[in-house]
Amino acid sequence: MRIALAIVAASELVLAAPGLILGDGAAAVHDARHLGSFGVAGSIGLLYVAWRPARAFGILPIVTALALTMLVSATIDVVHGRVTSFGEAHHILEFSGLVLVWMLAGRPAPRRLKPIVDPSHPAHRLRHA
Q1: pTM for the whole thing?
Q2: DSSP conformation class of 115
Q3: 114 to each of 97, 100, 107, 120, how far by Cα in Å?
Q4: What is the Cα–Cα distance from 53 to 46, expressed in whole angstroms?
Q5: DSSP-assigned letters across all residues of 5-55
Q6: pLDDT tens, 17-45?
Q7: Number of separate helices (H) and strands (E) present in the chain
Q8: How many angstroms separate the CA atoms of 13 and 119, rounded?
């Protein structure tokens, strides 16, 4: 999982760096640099968790918020025809990062979902192949 998270983080870093360095990817150079900064910072956070997985629980709320807001904004943009679903496919990286961080964090869940995700729970139903 740590290697997979490092690959996801490196991929996000490669996608975010042009915005930060060149100002590419948004309507205004200033906006592109801000988005690039955020993407690079998120990538560095994921790389840190890949290196120090004990820190996964701390970054989990941030990664969750990023993945959910990307899902909402991408869905709105696709529904309104601003982009194609293929054009939003790169956001799979955020969801991959979320799943990997969640797993490294010990698969935390609210009490009512514990039987599904917690392998130590007697009624555990989620099996890994």
Answers
A1: 0.79
A2: H
A3: 21, 18, 9, 9
A4: 10
A5: HHHHHHHHHHHHHHHHHH--SSSSHHHHHHHHHHHHHHHHHHHHHHH-GGG
A6: 888 888 876 668 878 888 888 899 999 99
A7: 5, 0
A8: 33
pLDDT score of 40? 92
Token match 């996608």: residue? 15
Helix, strand, coil % over all residues of the chain, rounded to 5: 75, 0, 25
Task: Give the three-class secondary structure for 85.
Answer: coil
Q: pLDDT band at 113, cuts 50/70/90?
A: low
Per-residue pLDDT of 67-76, as tens digits, reads 999 899 889 9
**pLDDT at res. 129:** 46
Task: Give the C-alpha separation, 92 to 98, whole Å.
Answer: 10
Task: Report domain extents, the chain.
Answer: 2-117
